[in-house]
Amino acid sequence: MFSITKYITILSFLVTILSCKNSTNITDDASETIAISGSEELKLSEFNENFINNGNVKDSNYVSKKLIEDWATEALFYQEALKKLNADEMQIERQVKAYKKQLVNYIYQSKLIEANLDTNISKQQIEEYYDNNRENFILKDNIVKVNYIKIAVKSNVINKIKNLLYATLPKDKENLKNLCIQNAENFFINDSTWLYLEDIKKEIPKLNAQPDFNLSKGKVVEFTDEFYYYYLKINDEKIKNGLSPINFERQNIKNFIINQRKTLLIKQYKKQLFEKAVSEKKFSIN
Question: Is the Cβ–Cβ distance between 30 and 14 less than 8 Å?
């Protein structure tokens, strides 16, 4: 049985050691038992490796005592479990064997994929996948292309930005971007990128008071509160339950294609491995 007296004595011994030595250099007599919990022993070497070398112990007697108490508690709980659980309930060997097999296969599979997977995907392949799987690209939320600016109302360039918002020359758009980079709290000026409308509403909370159908293509919305001026122009929109545009799904399509290739690569490799085993008479059914 676990001896409290012996445990306290050993713990005091360890605390003395930890007090006298630097906590990262406790190496004397590493095979010595420093604590006993039921049928388990804690060696000084194990304590050094698991608790000191990984940075868990600072030069503190309290921390050392707490670590040993935690170790003792877990050891006692494990011993109790071994007594109370029968072999059928634990099935340790079978579960460990199955897990080891899965883990080894996963590691080898990952290495095969890393060494052999073709990750190049052409524009044509993306378009073909999109055309052949349109039913998988139905929008679940509204998406928009926008110009969006949030800038402090006290900014000394706010009027200049407002004028540039309605300019049409390419150089004006470039000037607008430069002013936003230097002065805006947040902005997004991109005519080709789709965004979720709900994400825009998070940036401009007052939009939540407007029905989505009011935020149609060409719509310009301006708000001013105590601190900021907000500008939003809807350049394009796609409504939920409609077909998602290919540009919005491009990265998803790449991921789909890559995952298909991974699955096919491993399937073909396993098939070749099996066929080789059959031809070399390394497989049979009794």
Answer: no
Q: Sort 252 into a burial class: Cβ within 10 Å, 0-12 / 13-18 / 19+.
A: middle
- Spatial distance between the Cα atoms of 186 and 203, rounded to a whole number of angstroms: 9
| C-alpha torsion sign, points 278, 281, 283, 286 | positive
First to last CA, the chain: 51
Pick from 113, 140, 46, 114: nearest CA to 265: 113
What are the helix (H) ranges across 22-133? Answer: 44-47, 61-84, 87-90, 92-116, 123-132
Contact 129, 223 (CB under 8 A): no
Strand partners, 152: 228
List C-alpha distances in Å: 284 to 154, 184, 271: 82, 72, 16
**Whole-angstrom Cα distance, residue 130 to residue 233?**
29
Token pair 């039913």 in the structure block, residue:
135
CB 232 within 8 Å of CB 204: yes
Residue type, 279: S
Element (H, E) at 189: strand 186-189
- Length of the chain equals 286
Per the CB < 8 A criterion, the answer to whether 217 and 234 are in contact is yes
Task: Name the amino acid, one letter, at 284.
Answer: S
User: 205-216 pLDDT, tens per residue?
Assistant: 888 877 776 778
- The three-state secondary structure class of 55 is coil
Quick: pLDDT tens for 168-181.
788 888 899 999 99
